[in-house]
Amino acid sequence: MLILANVRERWSGFLGAFVAVLVGVALITTTLVIYDSARPDVQARYAGTAALALPEQAVDADGSPEDRMPWSTSEAKPLLAGLDKVPGVADVVVDRSFYAQAIKGGKPVTDEGALESGHGFGSAQMAPYKLVSGRAPSGTDEVVVDRALGAAVGSALTVNITEGRKQFTVVGTVDGPGYYFSEAFAARQQPGVRAIALVADKGADTGAVVTAAKKVLGDKGDVVSGDGRSELQPQHLEHKRFLGVQLISAMALLGLFTTVFVVASMLVLATGMRRREIGLLRTIGAAPQQVKRMIIGEAAVVGLLGSIAGCVAGVAATPLLRNILEGLDVAPPNMEITVAAWPLLTASVIGVGVSVIGAWTAGRKAARVAPIEALLDSRSANKGMGRGRWIAGLAVLGVGVLLAIGTATSSADNRINMAIFATMTLIVAAALLTPAFIGPVGRFLTAPFQRGGSAGPVLVRAELVANPRRAASLAAPVIAAVGFAVLLSGMVETMRVAYPAGEALKVSGQTIVTPDGTPGNTDEVVAANPVGKAALPTRAFVMKDTSAAKADKDTEQAGNAADATVLDVLGSRDPRWSKPGEAVLGERTAKDLGLTKGQEVPVRFADGTAVTLRVGAVLPDDPARGDFVVARDLVRAHDPAALTDDIFVPGNAKASAAVPGTALDDAAEYALADYQTDAKLTDSLAMMLIVIAVGYSVIAVANSMAMAAHGRRRDFGVMKSAGGTVRQLLLVSVGETSLVIVIGAALGILVTLPPLAGMASGLSQATSSDVSLHLSTGTLTTAVIGTLVAAVLAGLAVTAKTLRRQAA
Fold first, then answer.
1. Model-level pTM?
2. Which residues pair with 540 in a beta bridge?
3. What is 441-477 written as a DSSP string?
4. How far apart, in Å, do the first and last CA atoms of the chain sit?
5. What are the transmembrane regions (predicted)?
6. Helix, strand, or coil here: 420?
């Protein structure tokens, strides 16, 4: 009851922490709800299936589950026969997906999912899609298309496939998307069996079908039903979902850090301003543990109330975040928001937990308040830094420096995360160490105004020197706001200069043939450009136990997914790397696979067959060459559906864009276009994170300044009774606030420079170009001015209200 009474009576003192928890929990709730809503859905074309039989799952070089290892034709044959005999199964369909895209008016028809739009006609009954007109395809030159394409039955249609453009006769239309060919044609495009669909009889028991199908497969694969069928997703949807998850994960991480940082600093500030009250409680017999429990209990109540309000606000804001993700094209189509219990509970636990942890930190010091401090000013104690704070601050600073150094040496995929973690660490270090130098800095900055004869600078200087911890608590959210704004905007500006320059340098003097409206280059495009790099990528499975399988070329090898590592394999037409029966490995890949030069290794390809290759060379890692390179003809023989990457034609040869769906770029255009592909998302992500960090911190700054101004109402009364006018007191408040903001902004800039410098150094090495650190002055100015205006207005509002009450 005492705790509730304290919260009710001292509500203004807890308002800042309440708002901070509310905003943090709202942000976390919104991101978790979106994350939960963005889970893969069962594709519409699997709506008519009872279950899907899938091959075993292999792992990548890190041991994480990845691709499923396709069955070969001979492996799938007995499985199909057994599944067809399962009671309740009306039909068994081999589901194949490959590249198919109509060409109309000399241009490819826009289709996001073109890479997997081609199917055998049997796949149409899985949805089921019904024939609207015509008949099923029987010949290899016949196709059934979506009626929305507008192709009439009997008409000729040019369809781009892996081989290139080919004329087909439209023999039917269906009421669903895709291009449906004869089963024989589909089997040639994708020989490996990646999924077998079970279409059940009407009224059949799905559970019984699944149980029987599992017995047929045994240890050769898995059977999924219900929501489990969502495992099969088109590649473009998986990419969108991946980008969306990356974005909201960054938002949630930043929101969590900012919440912990801001709430802890505000609770420390609020508790420090209650030393006289706590001293009075100690005088009347309160034990240290009772004081600590009281402070923690108050924080728990405030955290619970803030979490409840934050959950409501977060759910209300979820449609806005969904619209933003859709605008950035990183949300699954037709995503519906579903509010489950776990995001709300998780966010609430975080809100209450952060409040309790922050109060525990503040309560430890408050519990040591002596009864005599009831007679002292609340701000007269703890002026300096204790030993524990010195040790913690220096230790965190050391970790931050190490992370900043690691930013320069980390890989491209980890460099951004490393820079963010380094900045977070240095922000915490700056907040811990601020009391040590805020007094000296305050003296230095106010020294020029000392000679003017005004009492204002003297009062401002005395306040900072006498109460460095309070000033440090006020500066903490400013450090976070400016630090994240400078870091994120600086990262974007630095990458904007570095990546195009580096890419242009790598391909200087070459002409690049790029896909234009298609997901890749077909063999027709490759034939039109016979000179230059034309890498043909595929996913292949390298068997770990090389002694267990000795297979000749193109000999089927059953293999076991548990003994296979899936990785990207490049087919090259470069004579240096495309020797028949050999593979060229990068040093890191060879180490991960445990392979050395001259060793033989079975490699299982997309068609389910294995080929034993000899490691012809192990070379230093080179992204331009590839980590596992084989002859291009070998990849094409075992993966007929694979599309070629960009083709790099040297300056002494002529590039051709005569095939529809291709474009020519020089080095500068290619580098800029390649960067612009992800630049929009990167810029939007950075801007969202900046808005979150700065906006949240601005709210915290305003609350902190308001709390500080409210806590100094007795000081204002004394200064006013000594002859100070309202105008003078307001100017003192503005001066002190501005000085704290300037110090916090300076620290915020300083803590970001080491990570940004490390990132620039790493980019210089990665791009082989001179990359310097770049800052966004506009973002920096906006962040500083925004926090300054919010702090000044909050301080002025509370000070003016206090003076009016005193005058009354």
1. 0.75
2. 567
3. HHHHHHGGGGGG--HHHHHHHHHHHH-HHHHHHHHHH
4. 34
5. 12-35, 247-273, 294-317, 337-360, 390-412, 418-441, 471-492, 685-708, 729-753, 773-798
6. helix
Q: What are phi and psi of 122, to 5 degrees?
A: -60, -30
Handedness of CA 655, 657, 661, 666 (dihedral sign): positive
Distance CA 17, CA 50 (A): 52
Q: How far apart are CA 707 and CA 15, in angstroms?
A: 9
Q: Which token pair is 780?
A: 């920096």
Determine contact, residues 94/80, Cβ cutoff 8 Å. Answer: yes
Give me the percent of the chain exceeding a pLDDT of 70: 78
pLDDT digits (tens, 9 = 90+) for 548-572: 444 444 444 446 666 789 999 999 9
SS (H, E, C) 590-606: HHHHCCCCCCEEEEECC
Residue type for position 181:
F
Is there a contact between 383 and 468 (Cβ–Cβ < 8 Å)? yes
* 63's tokens: 């041991």
Q: What is the dihedral of CA 721, 725, 726, 728, to 10 degrees?
A: -120
* 624-658 residue pLDDT tens: 889 999 999 999 999 999 999 999 999 888 999 99
Radius of gyration of the chain (CA): 33
pLDDT band for 606, please (50, 70, 90 cuts).
Answer: very high
Of 736, 799, 706, 699, the residue nearest 477 (C-alpha):
699
Range 94-132 burial, b when 16+ CB lie within 10 A, else e: bbbbbbbbbbeeeebbebeebbbbbbbbbbbbbbebebe
- Whether the CB-CB separation of 571 and 538 falls below 8 Å is answered with yes
The tens digit of pLDDT for each residue in 266-319 reads 676 666 666 666 666 667 766 777 777 787 888 888 889 889 999 999 999 889
Asked if pLDDT for residue 741 goes beyond 90, the answer is no
Q: Quick check: helix, strand or coil at residue 164?
A: strand
Work out the mean pLDDT of the chain and round it to a whole number. 81
Residue 324 has pLDDT above 90, yes or no: no
- Two tokens at 684? 């939007």
Closest to 166 measured CA to CA, from 103, 213, 123? 103
**DSSP letter at 372?**
G
